[in-house]
Amino acid sequence: MDTIQVSIKIPRDLAGALDIPLADLAPYLQEMVALELFRQGRISSGKAAELMGITKIEFMRLLGKHNIPYFTLSPNELEAEVDGVRRLTENPTG
Questions:
Q1: Of 5, 15, 64, 83, which is most buried, counting CB atoms within 10 Å of its CB?
Q2: Interhelix angle 56-65/25-39, nearest 10 degrees
Q3: What DSSP string runs through 18-74?
Q4: How is the chain split into domains, by residue range?
Q5: Can you tell me the distance from the alpha carbon of 12 to that of 29, in angstroms, rounded to the nearest whole number?
Q6: Backbone torsions φ then ψ of 35, nearest 5 degrees
Q7: Which residue in 27, 29, 24 sits closest to 9, CA to CA?
């Protein structure tokens, strides 16, 4: 993965409020960026996992830890998607 390095300044008291060691601050912020970009639908779970250097399954567990849903479709939307896939697989020629 081609990367860039970004530097940000945050107030020391904010770092203290996060209640994590300073050595863990950069990975923590990278995790928060990946989670938020996924939550906004701007990146896939696979891309978020890649950004964090973890597996997709580990990322899915992390979503659960932060109460972020993996699936964002409503039950009706999900049912419509499944019905569409069924139609395609039952009649693959259209």
A1: 15
A2: 90
A3: TTS-GGGHHHHHHHHHHHHHHHTTSS-HHHHHHHHTS-HHHHHHHHHHTT--S--S-
A4: 12-90
A5: 15
A6: -60, -45
A7: 29
Rounded to an integer, what distance in angstroms lies between the CA atom of residue 91 and that of residue 73? 25
**For 7-25, how does the pLDDT look when each residue is reduced to its tens digit (9 = 90+)?**
889 888 888 898 889 899 9
Residue 3 dihedral angles phi and psi, to the nearest 5°? -130, 160
Q: Which phi and psi angles does 58 have, rounded to 5°?
A: -60, -40
* pLDDT, mean over the chain: 90
For residue 5, give the DSSP letter.
-
Q: 42-68 pLDDT, tens per residue?
A: 999 999 999 999 999 999 999 999 999
Spatial CB neighbours of 51, under 8 Å, sequence gap ≥ 6? 1, 30, 33, 34, 43
Whether 43 and 12 have beta carbons less than 8 Å apart is answered as: no
